[in-house]
UniProtKB/TrEMBL annotation:
The keyword Transferase applies. One of its GO terms (molecular function) is acyltransferase activity, transferring groups other than amino-acyl groups. It comes from Bizionia argentinensis JUB59. It comes from the Bacteria. The keyword tRNA-binding does not apply. This is N-acetyltransferase.
Length: 174
C-alpha cells in the first residue's frame, strides 16, 4: 500500500473501508462545484470505484489518495487526473472535507507530499489546477507551492444562477 508520511498527516491508497467517507464527500452538494458533479453517486458505484482503485496510474490516468490525520481519521482526498506520461504532466485537486480541518496546514502538507511524489516517482515536469476566482484559500495554498496563475477563464462555471470565473494555475519543475 502506498503511504506518504508527513508530519501531521499522511496520504494513502484507497481501501474498501473508505466507502462511507467517499460516499459522504461525493454526495455533499455543497462541494459539487469543486468537482463539477451534478448528480449523486450510489454506494454501489462508489464500491465499484474502490474495487478498481488499485489500477495503475499509467492505465487509468488518475490517482486518488486519502488524506488521514495523526489519529488515522479520514480528513480529505487529493487527486492526480489527466495523467499524461508522454508530456510529463497531470492535473491536481485537493479537498479537506470538514470545515474544522481546514486552515490547519493539512492541505499544504498533503500538496507538498504529492508534489514530491510526482517529481520523485512519476518524473512529472508540470502540474496544473483549476480554482474558482473566489476560492482565496485554495489560490493561496497553490501559489505558496509554486503554482502560477496562467490565465483566467471568464464565465467558466455556472453555479447558483450565475457564471463564475476560474483561474488556471501551473507549476513547472526545474
Amino acid at each position: 500500500m502506498l503511504t506518504l508520511q508527513g508530519k501531521h498527516i499522511y496520504l494513502r491508497a484507497l481501501e474498501p473501508e473508505d466507502l462511507d467517507f467517499i460516499y459522504t464527500v461525493e454526495n455533499d452538494e455543497s462541494i459539487w462545484e469543486l468537482s463539477s458533479t451534478q448528480t449523486p453517486y450510489s454506494r454501489y458505484l462508489i464500491k465499484q470505484y474502490l474495487e478498481n482503485a488499485h489500477k495503475d496510474i499509467y492505465e487509468v490516468k488518475q490517482l486518488r489518495l486519502l488524506i488521514a490525520n495523526e489519529n488515522h481519521d479520514s480528513i480529505g482526498l487529493i487527486d492526480l487526473f489527466d495523467f499524461d506520461f508522454k508530456n510529463k504532466r497531470a492535473g491536481i485537486g485537493i479537498l479537506i472535507y470538514s470545515k474544522s480541518d481546514r486552515q490547519q496546514g493539512y492541505g499544504r502538507e498533503a500538496l507538498e507530499l504529492l508534489i514530491k511524489y510526482t517529481e520523485t516517482y512519476l518524473n512529472l515536469h508540470q502540474l496544473y489546477c483549476n480554482i474558482s476566482e473566489d476560492n482565496k484559500a485554495s489560490l493561496k495554498l497553490f501559489e505558496s507551492n509554486g503554482f502560477i496563475k496562467i490565465g483566467l477563464k471568464k464565465d467558466w462555471n455556472f453555479t447558483d444562477g450565475s457564471y463564475n470565473n476560474e483561474y488556471f494555475l501551473q507549476r513547472i519543475s526545474n
